[in-house]
Fold this protein.
Amino acid sequence: MVVSVERFQKAKLDDKAVLTFRDKSITLDVYQGTQNEVGIDITELREKTGLITIDPGYANTGSAVSDITFVDGEKGILKFRGYSIEGLAEHSTFVEVAYLILFGKLPTKDEYHEFSHLLEEHTALHTSLEHHFNGFPDGAPPMAILSAMLNATACHHPELLDTELDANNFMTASAKILSKVRTIAAMSYRRSQGFPIIHPNHQLKYCANFLHMMFSQPYREFQVDPVLERALNIFFIVHADHEQNCSASTVRMVGSSRANLFSSVAAGVCALWGPLHGGANREVINMLQSIHKEGKSAAEIIALAKDKKSTFRLMGFGHRVYKNFDPRARILKKHVDKLFEILHKSDPLLDIAIELEEQALNDDYFIERKLYPNVDFYSGILLRAIGIPLNMFTVLFAIGRMPGWMAHWKELLDHNQRINRPRQLYMGYTHRDFIPMDERD
Ligand code: SDX
């Protein structure tokens, strides 16, 4: 049996919850997680009482038992398989963290080399897939291309469309997707610029190969600066998973019908695209540029974000779970400073972001609502420093999140979890008779 399921079964508390409604009362089991969170088991609620719970947005609902990632929003703690994000960002690489998230342990040297070799082996796309890129119009959103091409790539790997992947098949399937998602992303960028496709260079490591495929030209190999390669590793590491966020929950929703790995992560790409989720890194830069170019002041932007008549939000601020600093924002800000120091670079948008952060953190509206900078607030500035174009920002978030999505898909199957099918509270018409069309007004 899977360790986390075994642990769950032993995590039942002696204390119970009692729910009373009218003349009915039900005693509910309560479980305590390894980090002391407590959850009420309502799996038999409707069967025993006819009642359901209502929680649009799932702010109070645990959808899974998981041992991949732990987030403590009050303390600003993030851990992948028990390892702190700060330690991983400091000492690890994205490929090593991907292995940890996918397979539950840090790899030995041999395991790391075997996985790296799998990634190298599966970087290229089938040549027929390259023609698909010509079917997209100029300026096509790279996230649309990414989700489409992930499903198109699946057609060349029928052996991986089976959801009953055993451990070996899952390692191959996850390595193929983790490797090819980088190639698809680079090719979608090249297509959007009207540049020829640059094929992978198997001598280069994961991040360096991506930068090569993005920026080399047929007549000139892009010289990958190790400082930028390290910055990209850190960007991918901090994005690698984040428990039951919107896109990971989407992957689990799709995977729960036993849809294959490719189609499940393609759905994750679509969920990530939204400006409230992964699209926020791009919106932060648009917001900072509007201040920089249009001369808007930080105070004006803050006022707009507080104005209930406006739909504008301070992008890169606030979080459903973090009610303290998002540790990833601290890591990215620290690395932006380090990068600019090493490269003797500066970015006016960074100065604006720092001013916005300072004003917001001292403003009652943000303090009362516990709104802090999240992962997206500084990530775009780091990507700009690496030279990544704005329309690729959320695509890079998707590359980073790929290990997490795939680990959640596998965990759901390992737990043999039922298909996800929430209930609802119906507030519509109780009954209406059919009226022939010519009698309708
Ligand atoms: C990511 O879930 C994850 O883990 C996501 C993620 C991951 O790694 O997968 O961490 C990545 O998606 C980070 C978030 C990126 N999005 C943004 O930066 C967009 C801006 N942020 C907000 O839209 C918002 O904070 C959310 C979407 C992140 C969270 O929304 P919630 O939890 O539904 O909060 P809410 O909309 O109910 O807001 C609560 C209050 C409201 O005010 P009141 O009605 O109480 O008066 O806070 C206000 C909101 O208006 N508020 C903001 C705000 N965020 C919340 N007001 C101004 N600016 C903001 N950014």
The longest strand covers residues 17-21.
